[in-house]
């Protein structure tokens, strides 16, 4: 299967957002956070989708999340302590699909868990669960084919990362992957920093979109509805992660889904017509 045939549900959702004249809202959640309950993970994903999330990035709990800041590290620690990991994340996606929810899901994480499982087995299980695409933080474009090709053969896409330090030549290499979208990390460092320190401009986003030939979602530093509205004027997608998982961590027992729904609704309203 060609790359162009991958992730049709995700591509369709992004195209629908574009047709509505707004940025897509991409919401990051950690699978198994806060208590390792599969039912609770499904409830939180569904709450985010029902409140207006266009895409869910579902984080795979990992013991060394080197690209993540304190909030997401804490979420992963909670999930790992409760016994969650790659198998939980895949089971959660399958359960979300079984519940009738068709929100596009990007499985987000580090390469070690798929590598240990075996990339062919991982690709089989991701496709069977209903994963639309995979974003692997520590697998650069030079090495992406070892995961991309098995996934593409099963209709699952990959999401490349682009940073403020990425050169034009490196960004241009993304075009051959034909991703559903590109994730632009708006600052160097780890997740959870403020938007004030980010490198976001119309010129930069336009240049990445043109070079990569794909929509551009911007993440890192988006903490409020005001931040989301500001970035949404420039990008095709707005990614919010740390601010959401912090609310999950602070929610009372049984209250995580409600806390997520309230915040996601605020973010979605900030991005334009509903």
Summarize the structure.
By secondary structure, the protein is α/β, with parallel strands linked by helices.
Please, could you describe this protein's structure?
Strands 5-4-3-2-1-9-8-7-6 form a 9-stranded parallel beta sheet. The protein has 12 helices and 9 strands. The mean pLDDT is 92. The protein has a domain of 188 residues: TIM Barrel (Alpha-Beta Barrel), CATH 3.20.20. With 274 residues, the protein is of the alpha/beta class. α8 links the parallel β6 and β7. 46% of the residues lie in helices and 14% in strands. The longest helix is centred in the last third of the chain and has 15 residues.
Question: Main traits of this protein?
Answer:
274 residues; alpha/beta; TIM Barrel; 9-stranded parallel β-sheet; 12 helices
Question: CATH topology of one domain, anyone?
Answer: TIM Barrel
Going by CATH, the architecture of one domain would be Alpha-Beta Barrel
Globally, the shape reads globular
Radius of gyration: 17 Å
Helix-strand string: HEHEHHEHHEHEEHEHEHEHH
What is the name of the CATH superfamily of one domain? Aldolase class I
CA distance, first residue to last residue: 35 Å
Average pLDDT, rounded to a whole number, is 92
Task: Look at the structure and give the CATH class of one domain.
Answer: Alpha Beta
The poorly predicted ranges are none
Largest β sheet strand count, sense and barrel closure: 9 strands, parallel
The DSSP helix count reads: 12
Strand order in space, largest sheet: 5-4-3-2-1-9-8-7-6
Structural class: alpha/beta
| β-strand number | 9
Approximately how much helix is present in the residues? 40-55%
- Strand percentage, roughly? 5-15%
């Amino acid at each position: 299967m060609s790359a162009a045939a991958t992730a049709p549900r995700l591509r369709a959702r992004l195209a629908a957002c574009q047709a509505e004249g707004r940025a897509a809202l991409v919401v990051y959640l950690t699978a198994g956070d806060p208590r390792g309950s599969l039912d609770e993970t499904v409830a939180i994903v569904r709450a985010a989708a029902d409140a207006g999330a266009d895409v869910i990035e579902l984080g795979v709990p990992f013991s060394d999340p080197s690209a993540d800041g304190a909030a997401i590290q804490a979420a992963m620690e909670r999930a790992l302590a409760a016994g969650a990991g790659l198998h939980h994340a895949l089971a959660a996606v399958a359960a979300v699909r079984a519940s009738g929810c068709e929100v596009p899901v990007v499985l987000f994480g580090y390469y070690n868990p798929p590598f240990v499982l075996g990339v062919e087995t991982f690709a089989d299980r991701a496709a069977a669960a209903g994963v639309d695409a995979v974003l692997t933080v520590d697998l650069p474009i030079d090495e992406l084919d070892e995961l991309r090709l098995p996934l593409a053969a099963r209709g699952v896409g990959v999401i490349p990362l682009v940073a403020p330090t990425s050169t034009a030549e490196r960004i241009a290499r993304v075009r051959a992957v034909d991703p559903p979208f590109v994730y632009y990390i708006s600052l160097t460092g780890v997740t959870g920093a403020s938007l004030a320190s980010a490198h976001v401009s119309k010129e930069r986003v336009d240049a990445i979109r043109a070079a990569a030939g794909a929509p551009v979602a911007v993440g890192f530093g988006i903490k409020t509805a005001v931040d989301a509205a500001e970035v949404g004027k420039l990008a095709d997608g707005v990614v919010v992660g740390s601010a959401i998982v912090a609310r999950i961590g602070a929610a009372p027992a049984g209250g995580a889904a409600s806390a997520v729904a309230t915040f996601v609704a605020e973010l979605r309203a900030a991005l334009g017509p509903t």
